[in-house]
Amino acid sequence: MATTGRRTGRPSLGDRHVMTARVPIPVRDEIDAIAERFGTDRSTILADLACAVTGHPDLARRLRFTAELIGPTATEEGLPLAM
């Protein structure tokens, strides 16, 4: 059987980069609950949140947002300083 040069499988999501994040366990649990609610996986939820917070909600695949990033949170030690 001759091949046509086409690949099968899911369609490309475009240019993407793999990132790793360490989140508190309660945050992970909530992200998993959101993923289950919307029938997707943790990675898609995190990617969609990153799209929204960086001003690219149009690139989100499963979630739509109305939230806005205001700025960093203050800690008891104050805001972190740039080195």
**β-strand number:** 0
Q: Element order, helices and strands?
A: HH
Mean pLDDT level: 82
Shape: elongated
Tell me what portion of residues adopts beta-strand conformation: under 5%
Number of helices: 2
Structural class, by secondary structure, is mainly alpha
Low-confidence stretches: none
Strand and helix layout:
Layout: H1 25-37, H2 42-53
Can you give me a brief rundown of this structure?
The protein is an all-alpha fold. The chain has helices at residues 25-37, 42-53.
What does this entry look like structurally?
- The protein has 83 residues and is mostly helical.
- It has a domain at 25-59.
- Helices cover 30% and strands 0% of the residues.
- The chain has helices at 25-37, 42-53.
- Helix 1 (25-37) packs across helix 2.
- The N and C termini lie far apart (61 Å).
Which features does this protein show?
83 residues, mainly alpha, 2 helices, elongated
